[in-house]
Structure formats: structure tokens, C-alpha cells
């Protein structure tokens, strides 16, 4: 690839740092951009962008590139956070990282980079882009344990044509080794966890500031009241921790399953009831099919009906299934084997081998 002007999103982490170094070594004119996406209570305890910017600036100094601090907090609140709150208020569990990539990192950031005269942008995501027959394909990263194509499935042809993922060709261990070899100041910095703008703060405490909530009953699969929830928005399907209920011993029965853990299995919004079941393999936690909406296809068109693989949550193994389109924006999946805790609001992402086809937002799961 010929040398060009590339704007790299420097987050302060090791992956984007190595991505910038690789591009500089390849002869590109590299400029770093640090994106500030969240301003509310950015106090340093959980999610301080100031610390990350210091790390990003230190990396830029070592590599020998310029860095600019850009504030996208207003765009983030309008395009990502507002939708995040709407979904939670509706009793669903959204994935803001997917929307953040589509609306901020590969839209607002891309537009800003183009205004700076960039030909391409780059990030530290573990994914790859391949051009084939005048089409751009989104591929899984080489490191299967770090692959982030799931979060990037809403990218379109125009975005992929301008995007580079330099570390997508590497294993995470290789990235760490390179960072240490070239003495990057953040070589040993731990990977960030948690939602992109919340960081590692207590999630329920954070949501409590923004969502109305009404406590209600917790019922088991027999309709028995066994506890109280603090608001349906604070729970997600498959959740085990934080339910505040112990074992339940059926009358006339000793030992056995009364000590099996409880899992969230559903929400009755009309009655404000949280439904829970005991045991990881309970039938209420298994789904054989789903319907998804708000579909987005990498190639720009609906894939043909037939066989594919899909993930209904990040880090899940690919699950064999059949796909059938229901118009341009909706599709249905039928799985060969039942899937666990398929959650409305999360993304169902489709694959053909290593190629990510796109996906949509899970609307309904069927047992």
C-alpha cells in the first residue's frame, strides 16, 4: 500500500499505540487524535480521560507524531447515550460499543480526519479489512481471543474503504512484545474493561442517575413471589449476580436443586415483574430462533437466505444457523442448537467463515 496521510485514534491504550507505530514504520504520514466522548463526572475515579490523554500524548512523543485532542461528547450524548437510555428504559439491554463505533469512531471521527486532509483513519481494533472484487470485506482479527469484528459489524463500504486495522494481523502477545521492544510508555498498561463511556464504575449506581425505576416482584417459573427487584432496567437476561435471592426449597423435598443458582429469564413489563429460574440449563434460558431489526449489512445488501454462523453476544463461539431476510432491515435466525440467554437489545452478528456479513439488534427470542 502506498504511503498516505493516516489519522490514528489514540486512546491511551497499547493497541492503538502499536497501530500508530506500525503505520509510521511503513512510511505513512501519521497524525494522532485523542477522542473525548464523555464529560459528565469525569473525575478520575473510574473513567478519567485526562489520564488516558497523558498516556496517548506520551506515546505520540515516543513515536514522533503530532496529537490532537478532540471533544465528541456532544455527538456521543445525542447519537449513542440517548439511544442507550431509551433501550434500557424499554427493558432491553443495548450494546453501546456497537453504536459508538458506527456513530462516533467511524463517522464523527472519520469526518474530522477527512477535514484534516487524511486519506485513511486507523484504530487499534482487532479486525481486518480486505478488498475483493471491488468490495470491502470486514474480517475477524487473527487473534480469535481478541477479535472485535462483532463490535464493528455496522460499518459500511464507505467507512471500510477509509479504514486500517494494523494490529488485526497480530496476536495480542505480539502487540505487547512490540510495545515493550520499542519502549512505549504504556507497554504494560492493562486493557480497559467496561462500557466505553462508563469505565469500571458500579453499573447500577450509574444507571440510577438517569433512569426512572420502580421496584417490583421477582417471580419464579411457577409464578411464586420469591423476592423484590429494584427496577427492571437494572437486570439483563442470564444475569446471576446481584439478584438478592437465595435458594428456594420446594415443600416436601429435601436436598437437590434448591441450592441451584438463580438466573434472570425474562421481564414482564406490564406487571413490572422480574422472572427468574434456577439452573444454567433451564428451558427458559434456551432459544432456538430469534428475530432482529435495524439490520446493517457490510456489503450494502441483504445476504441470501441460507446457512451461516452467528454470535448473539461478544466472545460467544460462532453458532451454526439459517438466516432468512424479512425486508432490508429485519431478519430471522434459526439455530441448529439452542442458544443461551439470547437478549433483546444485544446484537446478532452474522459470519461466513472469517467474513463478517453484518447484523442487527435482537428484537424477539423464541424458545
Helix percentage range: 10-25%
* DSSP strand tally: 17
The description of the largest β-sheet is: 6 strands, antiparallel, barrel
The rough form would be described as globular
The share of residues in extended strands comes to 25-35%
Number of helices: 7
Rg over alpha carbons = 22 Å
Task: Please write the string of helix (H) and strand (E) elements.
Answer: EHEHEHHEEEHEHHEEEEEEEEEE
Ranges where pLDDT stays below 50 over 5 or more residues in a row are: none
Structure description:
There is one protein chain. The chain is of the alpha/beta class and 367 residues long. Helices cover 23% and strands 30% of the residues. It is built from 7 helices and 17 strands. A 6-stranded antiparallel barrel has the order 12-15-14-13-16-17. It has a 5-stranded parallel beta sheet with strand order 3-2-1-4-7, with helices on both faces. α1 runs parallel beside α2 and α1 crosses α6. The N and C termini lie far apart (49 Å). The mean pLDDT is 91.
Keywords:
367 residues; alpha/beta; six-stranded antiparallel β-barrel; 7 helices; 17 strands; 23% helix; globular
Summarize the structure in short.
This protein has 367 residues and is an alpha/beta fold. It is built from seven helices and 17 strands. Helix 3 (73-89) packs antiparallel against helix 4 (96-115).
Blueprint (SSEs and pairs):
Blueprint: E1 5-9, H1 14-25, E2 29-36, H2 49-63, E3 66-71, H3 73-89, H4 96-115, E4 120-122, E5 127-132, E6 135-140, H5 157-161, E7 163-164, H6 172-181, H7 203-207, E8 216-219, E9 225-229, E10 262-268, E11 273-278, E12 286-297, E13 306-311, E14 319-325, E15 331-340, E16 347-352, E17 355-366
Parallel strand pairs: 1-2, 1-4, 2-3, 4-7, 8-11
Antiparallel strand pairs: 5-6, 6-17, 8-9, 10-11, 12-15, 12-17, 13-14, 13-16, 14-15, 16-17
Amino acid at each position: 500500500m502506498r504511503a498516505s496521510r493516516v489519522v490514528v485514534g489514540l486512546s491511551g491504550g497499547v493497541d492503538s499505540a502499536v497501530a500508530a507505530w506500525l503505520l509510521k514504520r511503513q512510511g505513512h504520514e501519521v497524525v494522532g487524535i485523542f477522542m473525548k466522548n464523555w464529560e459528565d463526572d469525569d473525575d478520575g475515579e473510574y473513567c478519567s480521560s485526562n489520564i488516558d490523554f497523558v498516556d496517548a500524548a506520551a506515546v505520540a512523543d515516543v513515536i514522533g507524531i503530532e496529537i490532537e485532542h478532540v471533544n465528541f461528547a456532544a455527538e456521543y450524548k445525542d447519537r449513542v447515550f440517548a439511544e442507550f437510555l431509551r433501550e434500557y428504559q424499554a427493558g432491553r439491554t443495548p450494546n453501546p460499543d456497537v453504536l459508538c463505533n458506527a456513530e462516533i469512531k467511524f463517522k464523527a471521527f472519520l469526518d474530522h480526519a477527512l477535514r484534516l486532509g487524511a486519506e485513511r483513519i486507523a484504530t487499534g481494533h482487532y479486525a481486518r479489512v480486505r478488498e475483493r472484487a471491488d468490495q470491502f470485506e470486514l474480517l475477524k482479527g487473527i487473534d480469535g481471543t481478541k477479535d472485535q469484528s462483532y463490535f464493528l459489524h455496522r460499518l459500511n463500504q464507505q467507512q471500510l474503504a477509509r479504514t486500517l486495522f494494523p494490529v488485526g494481523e497480530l496476536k495480542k502477545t505480539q502487540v505487547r512484545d512490540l510495545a515493550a521492544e520499542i519502549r512505549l510508555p504504556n507497554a504494560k498498561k492493562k486493557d480497559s474493561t467496561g462500557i466505553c463511556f462508563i469505565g469500571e464504575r458500579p453499573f447500577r449506581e450509574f444507571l440510577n442517575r438517569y433512569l426512572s425505576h420502580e421496584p417490583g416482584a421477582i417471580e419464579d417459573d411457577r409464578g411464586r413471589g420469591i423476592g423484590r427487584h429494584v427496577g427492571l432496567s437494572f437486570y439483563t437476561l442470564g444475569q446471576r449476580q446481584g439478584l438478592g435471592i437465595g435458594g428456594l426449597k420446594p415443600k416436601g423435598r429435601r436436598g437437590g436443586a434448591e441450592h441451584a443458582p438463580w438466573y434472570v429469564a425474562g421481564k414482564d413489563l406490564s406487571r413490572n415483574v422480574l422472572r427468574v429460574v434456577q439452573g444454567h440449563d433451564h428451558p427458559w434460558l434456551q432459544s432456538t430462533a430469534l428475530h432482529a431489526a435495524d439490520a446493517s449489512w457490510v456489503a450494502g445488501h441483504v445476504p441470501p437466505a441460507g446457512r451461516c454462523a452467528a454470535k448473539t453476544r461478544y466472545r460467544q463461539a460462532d453458532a451454526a444457523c439459517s438466516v432468512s431476510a424479512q425486508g432490508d432491515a429485519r431478519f430471522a435466525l434459526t439455530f441448529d442448537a439452542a442458544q443461551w440467554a439470547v437478549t433483546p437489545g444485544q446484537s446478532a452478528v452474522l459470519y461466513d467463515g472469517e467474513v463478517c456479513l453484518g447484523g442487527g439488534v435482537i428484537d424477539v427470542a423464541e424458545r
